[in-house]
Write a structure and sequence with these properties.
The chain is α+β, with helices and mostly antiparallel strands. The protein contains three helices and six strands, in the order ααββαββββ. It has a six-stranded antiparallel β-sheet with strand order 1-2-4-5-6-3, covered by helices on one side. The longest helix has 18 residues. The chain starts with 6 loop residues before the first helix and ends in an 8-residue tail after the last strand.
């Protein structure tokens, strides 16, 4: 019997997305939305949003979206990313990331993720290629 990913259960687990306060609002194969606060956990030493925090938010959205499009017995892992940081962000407020698939195939997927601040200003634009692979038999799905 094929194992399946329970995406909603996986998102409640501990790990970097949870540690950074990422919360998923919409989980659909054609659109994933998540939010993340911007506080001291997310800043680089000069007090601006760290690019790695933006990428964690964006990759979380792309990966979850890809999982939602994987057939039973498959999972997706990020293989490459291109990101453009469009404006700096200080502490305070919340980021909203919206991901949509550009391509969904049997061996790879491409997702575009747009991150905006609480005022609707674009903060980061990114594009992820994800490899669709066999579900790791050692993956902890429960």
């Amino acid at each position: 019997m094929d194992r399946e990913l329970d995406v909603e259960q996986l998102m409640r687990r501990s790990g970097l997305p949870r540690d950074l306060g990422i919360e998923f609002a919409d989980l659909f194969p054609i659109r994933v939305v998540a939010t993340m606060p911007v506080d001291d956990r997310h800043l680089q030493p000069l007090g601006f949003l760290h690019g790695g925090a933006s990428l964690t938010l964006a990759e979380s959205v792309a990966t979850v979206g890809a999982w939602l499009n994987c057939p039973p017995g498959k999972m997706a892992l990020a293989a490459s990313v291109n990101a453009s940081y469009l404006r700096p962000k200080r502490s305070g407020g919340r980021l909203v990331a919206v991901g949509i698939p550009d391509y969904v195939g049997s061996e790879k997927q491409v997702w575009e993720v747009d991150i905006r601040d609480e005022g609707g200003e674009r903060v980061c634009a990114s594009r992820f290629t994800l490899a669709v692979v066999d579900l790791d038999p050692d993956a902890h799905l429960t």
